[in-house]
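Quick one, T. Sequence first:
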Amino acid sequence: MPYNFFKDFKKACKKEPEKVFPHKKALKDADKLFNLRTKSELLSFITSNGLEELEFETKKEWEKNPKKSNPMLVYSYEFRSMCKLGYIAIMRNEEYGNWIIKSFHLSNRSNNMMNIAFQKAKFIKK
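Structure tokens:
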């Protein structure tokens, strides 16, 4: 697992939040699925170890990069939060020194039966 990449990302979330940019869809999904309503809440969640059992998935070149002269790699990870299995994909724009949260949603491998049971029992919100 590229620990240093995520470690550097997490450090930027805490010390340089102005250099971390969640995509609009990632922020919308963070709100809808994890009740993280703002960029500030999302970054705080990340820095306070909300991404439990973080597991590296893949590293690949960003296919939809509009600026081919500045190639960027996408690092994706799965994590747990409460009874949800989540997915985060992040990139580093070396040209500008910025971080981008490309995706933040439930994992495609997620088994949400426990989540549904907790919702029915009213332990967590839908």
